[in-house]
Amino acid sequence: MNAVAKPASQHRTPAGGRSHRYLVYGLALESDVPLLSVDEAPAEDVETAIRLTEAPTDTFRRRTESVAADPQAWSHHALLEGGAVYMKIRGVFEAIVAPDGRQVDCLRPEEADQGSFEANLLNFVMSTALTQQGEEPLHATVLDLAGRAIALLGPSGAGKSTLAAFLVGRGARLVTDDMLRLSFFAGQGHAHYGPNRLKLLDEPAKRLLPEAIATGYFNTVSGKLMVRPDDRTGSRREPLPLAALIWLGNRPPEQGPGATGVSASRLGGLELIRVLTSSAMNIRDYAPQRLARQLRFVEQVARTVPVFALVYPRDYARLADVADRIRSIVRDA
Fold first, then answer.
1. What is this structure's pTM?
2. Which fold would CATH assign to domain 138-196+231-332?
């Protein structure tokens, strides 16, 4: 890593013994663990949706003694007796999510830095808790374009964060990176705010958001910088109406005379189902009732939010054309 960022030691958990209450993804999270990337809930006017508790190592060893796992494996994921979910990334975190998703026991190893621990807690662990509660969070990066949100979908490496950084540099506001929690009301889909931090590789961070690097830190799991874009717009409390979901395709665009190399098409049918199911944050739960719920979720999205496939060359010089196409999608939605 060449960019200048804060070392992990500057991101250790601050001292304190009280319980904390945070508002993130439109939910109240009550936690024994102080978190640095989300705001504390201002009042008790939001019911606690998830309780996060630090548990000792003995608790994890006792509850997972029946789990067959390779001790050298980098990550573990297992369904425990009774329906709880065990998750571990070696050297970063361990967590047990209750069957109803409302209680999470967690453990932070001594060698884990606060930033990596917290990022994984608020993405993978919280998405598992929401799935246990019956929701379907998506793997997406979401931006506010003048009061309307667009969500960028695609597998890791598709370019979601790089495109998001370009749009933020052009005046967009980051809503959430990695995980999108959707709510449906008033005939629309709405996107909830997540932590204000964007995961970027070294080169796009230096190219597109150089001013944010100084307050960033290195994520030991992803090998990326976690940068915090400037955000002076105000509250991150109320969800935003979602204008479109945009899948970042990986097929090369058709090149013709005068073509910009950027194309967008609206998805439907089996392609829409494939895109939305493959964009789930939780891809390890194959229970029949969960799969049926996913299909109901796809149907609800199809009724309320247009979904597009956006194909473009991965070239910094073309990002302005891509941004123009996205803004035209929002105008027409």
1. 0.88
2. Phosphoenolpyruvate Carboxykinase; domain 3 (3.90.228)
